[in-house]
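Researcher: Going back to the complex we discussed earlier. I've cleaned up the inputs and rechecked each line, so this should be the final set. Can you rerun the prediction on the complete assembly and write out the structure?
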Amino acid sequence: MSGGYLTIRNLSAVLRDTGERVLRSVDIDLQPGTIRGLVGESGAGKSMIGKAVLGVLPKALKVVEGEILIDGQDLLKLKDADRRRLIGASTALIPQDPLTALNPSHRIGPQITNRLVDILGWTRRAAEVRALEVLEEVQIADAARVMRQYPHELSGGMRQRILIASAFAAEPKLIIADEPTTALDVTVQKQILKLISNLQARHGTALLFVTHDLGVVAKICDSLSVLYGGKVVEDTDVASFFNGPHHAYGRALLAATPRHTDPDASLLPVPDDVIAAVRAELGEADRQWVRHD
Amino acid sequence: MPILRVVLSRFLTTLITLIGVAIIVFVVVRVVPGNPIAMMLPPGASTADIERLSALYGLDKSIFEQFTIWFGNVLQGDFGTSISTRQPVLDLVLGRLPATLELSLMALIIAVILGMGAAIIGTRYRGRRTETGVDLANGIGLSVPDFLWGLLLIILLGVVWPLFPISGRVSPRLDLPFSTQFYLIESIFRLRFDLTGNLLRHMFMPALALALPLAAIIAQLLKQSLKETVNLDYAVLARTKGYSETRVILSEALPNALLPTLTLIGVQFTFLIGGTVIIERLFSYEGLGNMAVDAVINRDLPLIQGIVILFALIFTAINLLVDMTYAFLNPRLRHA
Ligand SMILES: Nc1ncnc2c1ncn2[C@@H]1O[C@H](COP(=O)(O)OP(=O)(O)O)[C@@H](O)[C@H]1O
Ligand SMILES: [Mg+2]
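Model: Rerun complete. Updated structure for the full complex:
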């Protein structure tokens, strides 16, 4: 399993204060043009993996070992400015909460074009033409007018469409979507999901799709990583996962997932004995890790 | 039409504020001891003389009568005659106002530049020694009042290293070609940069003394507000696009963090203008504040009243300006 567009190898991150591991020797491989689901309960470390790749880990966390390769280049070995440029040019984020991810002081247009102009060196004119194009791609009517509006004038669904458009605008090879539908109305969730997977297919983007909804994984993903306590406990393709996960936690997760009706019921309850077993596994991994260190 | 209603209600509150201020100052200057008429006459003047002069200035009438006459005149733009100089109060006050406006605005500009600069640098290097340095400087700026800064500056930059003149608005021997009292502005328009330089050198220390406490307040609030804003989702998203930390602070965080600071600057600026009374005295700067002190010493009641009313007008104007700027800068209000 190598040669992916994004390859994370043996990535561990700890809390600076306590030294507690938040990411435990994570391995993830994402092939070009495919979608990998990153699944796990709340607090499992899904967002932190995305943030580590994007170089925006909270100050409280520190990467202590591992590699994050984008197109073969290890981000962690690059100088800050070089890493930022590489990320800005190759990777985009579709954030979780469309209500807080747009800057309330700026109009929509510049928030889409700013990366193209400031980071990638496009002319303003070309960037605006491109912004109109992607806004139409995410089915926003009257795109020219929307570009002159402020975020507060638009609905949550609209704003998420704009953020999706903005993510695809620079034709990134990699997109990280961090629970992009969780904050939306159930009725809008389906449309947004469809939109993302359509755009992904059309642009051939590698997509790391963070979710706690196995139903979504079944629908759009090619492969998935199941995360518990910052450790990848299952790494497989979607078909074999739904045909029978290898790991007890994965099996329990699948059994606990309702037939995709109530999105909030999503994960859990996973039986206590399974949880206890996974915890024991984590503890064992930590002991070995410390000794190894 | 909401705009019209806002303007109307603003106008009414302004009027009520002014009436309130007028009443208070009118009563206070008459209750405190000291007879302005006695101070005008040579020692040993007869009681008859005093009474005659009192009648001339209307000081023999009841306070209520005096007030209605005076306020009625004020509303028609007549602020009366100064007792000590016998010139129209309005002319005196308007003659001095430009000097104070130039000084206060210069102080405001210095405070905003220093305060914003410190806040941005402190945020950029947060959690490091630089931030501790900024915090320390803020602490000092906040705990030393403007007149003490004035004294310190006079000692340091006026006496020990005499880099700046310690008194006056402009060097006394200079020929001034000005037709308004806005010397600084006019010197620029007349391209008399020699005079501009002279005026700026005189203005530097009093303006800095007024500015330092305000700069510290701005720095403290803005830094706190910036530090919260740089962790918000949209700032993080900008970082993932490849923006440097400095760019994130300046173009993503600052426009949003500035709004709460702006209100504070408005309120604090009125305090700063109040501070000109002492600072102008300290630096013998010929502005309204200095004139106010003279007026009080001379018990020049009409002049005191005129100056206070003018200050009150300036304060309400500043508040109005801040509200308008706030509405303009905040897209949510702009489109409401
Ligand atoms: N800013 C932070 N400071 C300290 N710990 C954090 C911070 N953000 C996240 N964590 C820790 O990292 C773990 C993983 O969080 P996260 O990746 O956000 O979970 P999720 O899988 O729900 O996205 C959490 O258990 C949390 O304790
Ligand atoms: Mg998360």
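Model: Worth noting: Residues 256 and 332 of chain B are 12 Å apart (CA to CA).
Researcher: Good, that matches what I expected from the previous run.
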